[in-house]
Amino acid sequence: MLRKKKPKRMRYVRIKRTEIIDGEPVRWLGGPIPVTDAGEVMEHLEDQYERLGRKVGLMLTDSMGE
Fold this sequence. Notes:
This protein is α+β, with helices and mostly antiparallel strands. The protein has 1 helix and 5 strands, in the order ββββαβ. The protein has one domain. The chain has one helix at 38-52, and strands spanning 11-15, 18-21, 24-27, 33-35, 60-62. The strands form 2 sheets. A 3-stranded antiparallel sheet has the order 4-1-5, with helices on one face. Strands 2-3 form a two-stranded antiparallel ribbon. It is rod-shaped, with a radius of gyration of 16 Å.
């Protein structure tokens, strides 16, 4: 009999970061985004930062509490 595989738990990453740009608070990537690995998240964020023309240090927190 074939056993059913447990679904892999989706990891979410929340980005905690608010910056004031031109007097406006900018919230990077508001919601939790599903990720398969941290590399993807970093790429995604770097794209966003490059669009704004700035490199920013990030704080990544995991909903899994790591």
